[in-house]
Amino acid sequence: MIELCRDVESSSANPFEVDIREKILILKQRLPELKFLDELLVDAEAMLELAQIVKLQDEWLKTRASSLYIDPLLIQLKVKLLPKEALSEALIKSWHPVAQIDQLSPRGLEKAFVYWRELIPISERFKDQFGTYGVGPGQVEYADLVSLGVFSREQFESNLSGLHEELIRRSNGDWVDYREFINAEDFETKVRRAYLLAFLISEGRALLKTEPLSGKIWTMGLADKVKGLPKSVAISITGEA
Amino acid sequence: MESESTDRVLLERKVRRAFQVLVLQRGRNPGVKGWEMKRHLGRDYRKIIEVLSEDVSSMGLEVFEVKGADGTDDSSRFLLRFKEPPTISEAETSGIRIDDLAVLAATIAFVNSKQGRVARREIEQFLREKFPRWRVEYSLDRYVKRGYLDQDDRSMLHIGWRTHAEVDEKTLMTLILSRAQEGAKK
């Protein structure tokens, strides 16, 4: 119940999807069974979350009843249709800027002085978070990854075989989009898949084809290893899908 | 007769004081809270604000009230703002980037269409279809910092107090809808 409420609170889902009456009845039925302090605290937390949902329902109704409510899909479509210039023009035509004088006060000057005096040199500032300035970006060898514990040798082999099988199955003798193939829910998995696929390509168990004009990259799985003149291709991977 | 003249002088003095209080920035955010106005001008501060609003009208300004979260007089924020929106060329000469304004316009429209609250990642995803990723993140951060948007501890974005103060949201929504129709016709 708490998780459900939190999910609704942290998304733009309709808060009326939570049946408050039903949930309160459940809490009421369970209350006599609760004996320990921990259980009672969780019960209170559930009540608090339900109260938050009621608050959201209130806000939801108020906005929906106001003249500002427009179907989100309609707005998305309209915004997509409009050029940036027209969007900014719409904002300017409904904008009433604040008129104000910015001035330097003695207090502001003092704050600036104290800030400057206590400012740590830039070379020292982020040491705690990022450590000292050391090694720049570079290459990591497979052996290094094994030693770092990112892969174990067995895990690597089984992952490589798994990806090879998946590629053969998905390509089925045809080219498949490289970015679609390596795509995953999280960035880490995506990089891992790209790394493994690079291994398969280097070993001749998969092919890679690039189209410079369209920027498209294709790959194909091979059941048998092929030999040819290897070429290097640099592909950047971003966090975007 | 003498008393009337004294009242007039007192009123003029208070109106002048109200103008000074509103126009000088104190603290990070513009505007003055209701309780501060009461402290500077006395209990009848609303009447003085009304007189001031009429006086500054000839200069194209007005005193605008933004209601606070709890709706009380004390929590209201009073600001001096342009009575009419600036022209496009005036806005352009103020150094604001078209892209930044377009991001804000699209964000306000989207948040309002989603009952006033949207997960930040959802709005980022929506905006990335139209603007580069770096621009989206940079602009959203800046608008949160400047009070146009409000981001809570669950990373949900809401319309900020400054948008309520400076942007006529109803006009914005109407313009976006009507412009899109024009765009589609073309």
Fold blueprint:
The complex is a heterodimer of chains A (241) and B (186).
Chain A: H1 2-9, H2 20-30, H3 37-65, H4 72-81, H5 84-93, H6 106-118, H7 122-125, H8 127-130, H9 142-148, H10 153-171, E1 176-177, H11 178-182, H12 187-202, E2 206-211, E3 216-221
Antiparallel strand pairs in A: 1-3, 2-3
Helix pairs in contact in A: 1-3, 2-3, 10-12
Chain B: H1 2-23, E1 32-33, H2 34-41, H3 45-57, E2 61-66, E3 77-82, H4 88-93, H5 98-113, E4 118-119, H6 120-128, H7 133-145, E5 149-151, E6 156-159, H8 161-166, H9 169-185
Antiparallel strand pairs in B: 1-3, 2-3, 4-6, 5-6
Helix pairs in contact in B: 1-3, 5-7
From the spread of the alpha carbons, the general shape of chain A counts as: extended
Order of helices and strands of chain B: HEHHEEHHEHHEEHH
CATH class of one domain in chain A: Mainly Alpha
According to CATH, the homologous superfamily of the largest domain in chain B is Winged helix-like DNA-binding domain superfamily/Winged helix DNA-binding domain
Our count of domains of chain B comes out at 2
Number of strands of chain A: 3
Quaternary state of this entry equals heterodimer
Tally of contiguous helical segments of chain B: 9
CATH third-level topology of the largest domain in chain B: Arc Repressor Mutant, subunit A
* Alpha-carbon distance between the two ends of chain A: 32 Å
Structural class determined from secondary elements of chain B: alpha+beta
Q: Helical amount among residues of chain A, as a percent range?
A: 55-70%
Query: How many extended strands of chain B?
Result: 6
Please tell me about this protein's structure.
The complex is a heterodimer of chains A (241) and B (186). Chain A is mainly alpha-helical. Chain A has twelve helices and three strands. In chain A, strands 1-3-2 form a three-stranded antiparallel sheet. In chain A, strand 2 (206-211) and strand 3 form a beta hairpin. In chain A, helix 1 runs parallel beside helix 3 (37-65), helix 2 runs antiparallel to helix 3 (37-65) and helix 10 (153-171) crosses helix 12 (187-202). The two termini of chain A are 32 Å apart. The mean pLDDT of chain A is 82. Helices cover 59% and strands 12% of the residues of chain B. In chain B, strands 1-3-2 form a three-stranded antiparallel sheet. The relative contact order of chain B is 0.09. In chain B, a hairpin with a 4-residue loop joins strand 5 and strand 6. Chain B has 186 residues and is an alpha+beta fold. The N and C termini of chain B lie far apart (67 Å). Chain B is elongated and about 70 Å long. The longest helix of chain B is centred in the first third of the chain and has 22 residues, at 2-23. The chains are: A mainly alpha (241), B alpha+beta (186).
